[in-house]
Specification:
The protein is α/β, with parallel strands linked by helices. The chain folds into 2 domains: 163 residues, D-Maltodextrin-Binding Protein, domain 2; 121 residues, Periplasmic binding protein-like II (D-Maltodextrin-Binding Protein, domain 2). The chain is built from 13 helices and 11 strands.
C-alpha cells in the first residue's frame, strides 16, 4: 500500500523549509571569514593597505579578514578571483583604479571594466614623479627640454609597465617638450629603478611610493611631479602643472572593490568601515610615510565617472603612439 504524507505534515515541513530559507537570507553579514584579494605582491603597497583595512574590518565586524596576494598579469588575476568568488559578498579586491582605466587598454582582458567591478571606497591617492639618474646633466624640466633637443637619437626613459600611465606620461612629456622620448618598458619598478641608478637609462616616470626612498637617499633626483598639487613628501619639487603643463596632472589611487551585484547594505558597510578607519590620524600618517596621500570620500559613482574620463584620456594617448594591447 502506497503511503502518503498527511497534508498537515507537508504544510509543516514546507513552512519549516521556507522559514529556514528566510532566516538564511536574513543572517547577519558576514557569516564567515572575509577575503581581501590584493592585485599585487606580498609586501607591496596594495598588500600593506589591505592589511590596514583588514585590521579595521576585523575590529568592526568581529570576523577574520584574510589578505591574499594575487600578483601578476597587471592585476587581472586578482580581478578574476573577485569575479569568480565575490558573489557571496565575502570576497573583496584591493587594487589601483588603473585596473579599470589603464589595464584593459594595455592588455587583452576578459572582464568588462565598467560593468564587472565597483569601487566602494578610495583609500589613498598618489602620483607619478619624473626622476633622473643622479648624474644626469639636467636638474629641472627646462634643462631637460634644452638637453633633449640636442639629442638627435632622443632620450630613453623607463616605466614600470608597457602601456600603463608611466609609459604614456613619458611619451606625452616628449610631445609637450617637443623632444623625442624612447620608451623602455620593465616588469615592475624595481628592475627599472636598478637600471636608472646604474646609468643604463637616464629617466623614469615612477610612482612616488617606490621612488621616494631612493630620492631621500640621493640615489636619483626628482625633476617634476605628475599630480595636481605638490606632494607633502617632496615640497620643493614643482608639479608639471606649475611649470605650464597641466596635461600632466593625474591622480592614481588605491581602493577597495566588489562585484556590483552584492547586496547594497554590504557595499555600504564596507565603504563606511574603510572611510572611517582610513581617516584616523595615525593611518593618514602611515600613508604619507608610504608616499601616499589620504583618499577622499568620493562616492562610488563619482569614482567611476572619474575613471571613465581617465580611460578616455589614456585611450587617446595610446592611440597617438599606435599602441596595440598585448
Amino acid at each position: 500500500m502506497k503511503q502518503t504524507m498527511p497534508w498537515k505534515a507537508i504544510a509543516l515541513a514546507t513552512g519549516l523549509s521556507l522559514s529556514a530559507a528566510t532566516m538564511a537570507q536574513q543572517a547577519p553579514w558576514p557569516v564567515k571569514p572575509i577575503r581581501l584579494v590584493v592585485g599585487g605582491p606580498a609586501g607591496g603597497n596594495a598588500d600593506s593597505l589591505a592589511r590596514l583595512l583588514a585590521d579595521g574590518m576585523q575590529k568592526q565586524l568581529g570576523k577574520p579578514v584574510i589578505v591574499e596576494s594575487k600578483p601578476g598579469a597587471a592585476g587581472v588575476l586578482a580581478v578574476n578571483d573577485l569575479l569568480a568568488n565575490g558573489k557571496d559578498a565575502h570576497t573583496f579586491l584591493l587594487i589601483q583604479g588603473g585596473i579599470v582605466s589603464e589595464t584593459p587598454l594595455a592588455y587583452k582582458v576578459s572582464y568588462q571594466p565598467f560593468k564587472d567591478l565597483k569601487p566602494l571606497a578610495q583609500l589613498s591617492r598618489n602620483g607619478l614623479v619624473l626622476i633622473a639618474n643622479k648624474d644626469f646633466p639636467a636638474s629641472n624640466l627646462q634643462q631637460l627640454a634644452d638637453y633633449g633637443k640636442k639629442q638627435s637619437d632622443g632620450l630613453d626613459f623607463a616605466s614600470y609597465a608597457t602601456g600603463m600611465r608611466g609609459h604614456t606620461s613619458g611619451m606625452l612629456l616628449g610631445q609637450l617638450l617637443n623632444i623625442k622620448m624612447k620608451h623602455l618598458g620593465y616588469k615592475g619598478s624595481p628592475p627599472a629603478l636598478s637600471d636608472l641608478m646604474g646609468g643604463h637609462v637616464p629617466l623614469m616616470m615612477d610612482g612616488l611610493t617606490t621612488a621616494l626612498p631612493l630620492i631621500k637617499a640621493g640615489k636619483v633626483k626628482p625633476l617634476a611631479v605628475n599630480y595636481p598639487t605638490r606632494m607633502v613628501q617632496l615640497p620643493d619639487v614643482p608639479t608639471f602643472k606649475e611649470l605650464g603643463y597641466p596635461q600632466l596632472s593625474e591622480v592614481s589611487w588605491f581602493g577597495v572593490w566588489s562585484r556590483p551585484d552584492i547586496p547594497a547594505d554590504v557595499q555600504a558597510r564596507v565603504r563606511e568601515i574603510a572611510l572611517q578607519y582610513f581617516k584616523q590620524p595615525q593611518i593618514e600618517a602611515r600613508l604619507r610615510d608610504m608616499g601616499m596621500e589620504p583618499g577622499t570620500d568620493a562616492t562610488p559613482e563619482a569614482l567611476m565617472s572619474e575613471l571613465q574620463k581617465a580611460y578616455q584620456r589614456q585611450q587617446a594617448l595610446l592611440k597617438s603612439i599606435d599602441y596595440q594591447p598585448q
